[in-house]
Design goal:
It is built from four helices and no strands. The protein is mostly helical and 115 residues long.
């Protein structure tokens, strides 16, 4: 009885067990595409969705959200960040080819005691 119901719906020649490897692969690809397409479709019919927002309302809501986010970030910072050094200063400080001045002793090395 069960086999008769199955064959009434799908002929035996189209059963996955009767297919070649190439046909099985194609069927699997098609099923994957169908599942992905079904997942992309909205779950609710279009008549149930709320009406779209007016452009002016949308712009106002977006502006408010951005302003609130900026305010929240500004309040979260305790002190303003220190700006980085100028590019020339940073390059001069890291240069290995610059020799220190003779009259200038490095701060981390002990020099001769002043008399």
């Amino acid at each position: 009885m069960l086999l008769e119901l199955l064959t009434a719906r799908t002929p035996v020649a189209e059963w996955p067990t009767q297919m070649t490897a190439k046909q099985k692969a194609e069927r699997a690809r098609e099923l994957t595409r169908a599942r992905a397409a079904a997942a992309d479709r909205p779950a609710a019919p279009l008549s149930v969705l709320p009406p779209p927002a007016e452009p002016a309302e949308l712009a106002t809501a977006t502006r408010r959200a951005v302003t609130a986010d900026r305010r929240r970030r500004r309040d979260a910072v305790s002190t303003p960040p220190t700006p980085p050094p100028l590019l020339g200063e940073a390059l001069r400080a890291r240069s290995l080819f610059l020799l220190p001045d003779e009259d200038e002793a490095p701060a981390d090395e002990p020099g001769p005691e002043p008399t």
